[in-house]
């Protein structure tokens, strides 16, 4: 699975004004709503509802929030790098600065698992994470995460 199939340059950003998990999910919802034409509230509610079940902060400064969208929309990813790490209730109790959010249609379980596997493999690489944290622009971030 190539991440370019679900992640666009328009949905890849370095964010300086993100102070909390809630704000990060709001930013992700804004970007996804623009990309998909779905209401921000619907996206936020899906992501926030999943977070209520347990944090998607997987450790080492990384979170992979995810939620379900209507079946008529394609799987869509948003990647943000927070310039200032935020509390995300991560498994290792460390703040998060790399957030890869995934929105998938309710009936897309196989594709969902393939995307998650590709993301996990990419973000498990410490050199890639270091490069993402040091990238100078949104374009650089996009190139690093998708190649």
TrEMBL record:
Name the PANTHER family for this protein: NITROGEN REGULATORY PROTEIN, PTS SYSTEM FRUCTOSE-LIKE EIIA COMPONENT-RELATED
**SUPFAM superfamilies, A to Z:** Phoshotransferase/anion transport protein
- Quote the InterPro entries the UniProt record gives: PTrfase/Anion_transptr (IPR016152), PTS_EIIA_type-2_dom (IPR002178), PTS_Nitro_regul (IPR006320), PTS_SugarTrans_NitroReg (IPR051541)
PTS EIIA type-2 domain boundaries: 5-147
PROSITE patterns according to UniProt:
PTS_EIIA_TYPE_2, PTS_EIIA_TYPE_2_HIS
Gene behind this chain? Answer: ptsN
The name of this protein is PTS IIA-like nitrogen regulatory protein PtsN
């Amino acid at each position: 699975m190539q991440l370019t199939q679900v992640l666009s340059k328009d949905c890849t950003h370095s964010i300086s004004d993100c102070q909390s998990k809630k704000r990060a999910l709001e930013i992700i919802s804004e970007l996804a709503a623009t990309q998909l034409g779905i209401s921000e509230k619907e996206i936020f509610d899906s992501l926030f509802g999943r977070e209520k079940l347990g944090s998607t902060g997987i450790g080492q400064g990384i979170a992979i929030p995810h939620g379900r969208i209507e079946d008529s929309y394609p799987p869509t990813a948003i990647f943000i790098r927070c310039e200032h790490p935020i509390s995300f209730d991560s498994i290792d109790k460390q703040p998060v600065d790399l957030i890869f959010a995934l929105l998938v249609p309710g009936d897309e379980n196989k594709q969902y698992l393939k995307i998650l596997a590709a993301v996990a493999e990419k973000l498990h690489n410490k050199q890639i994470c270091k490069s993402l944290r040091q990238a100078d622009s949104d374009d650089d971030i996009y190139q690093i995460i998708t190649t």
